[in-house]
Amino acid sequence: MADIEQIGTFIAIPKITDPRGNLAVIEKDTVPFEIKRIYYLYDVPSGAYRGGHAHIAQKEFLIALSGSFDVLLDNGSEKEKVTLNRPDKGLLIREGIWRELDNFSSGAICLVVSSDVYEEQDYIREYTDFINSKRT
Ligand code: TYD
Q1: Is any ligand 1 atom within 6 A of the Cβ of residue 48?
Q2: Which of 49, 85, 99, 101 could cross-link with 68 by S-S, CB 3.0 to 4.6 Å?
Q3: Interval between CA 20 and ligand 1 midpoint (Å)
Q4: Number of domains in the chain
Q5: What pLDDT was estimated at residue 70?
């Protein structure tokens, strides 16, 4: 089993707990990159599969704002599957890591904090291209 620290890293999100409801804050020092984009997956149907790509340069930080889902991480030589199910703990995925998301619970929301704006040129969408990129 691969060490998750080599492929992805869990980061605790600072929070202010309160009987009226908790408040978690992501600000510039929470993640080790400059935040340029936030997007989220929601209304994901049961059985759906997302991801299936790597980023060449972009880093991403994933949080299960609600519900849960699984993330398969692959650095080209080792794979690790993790479950995200807490709004106060996110998963840092560095550049050059293949990821696949599935097993979304009903009502799951996946928030993604990204190091850059959307650029299709930053994607590797074919697994064979990803593996080849690791060889060169
Ligand atoms: P994609 O990143 O492949 O989604 P996922 O990894 O969650 O399965 O993106 C799906 C589509 O949405 C694709 O056509 C690109 C588009 N898209 C944008 O236009 N802007 C964005 O910021 C993102 C993340 C995706």
Answers
A1: no
A2: 85
A3: 35
A4: 1
A5: 98
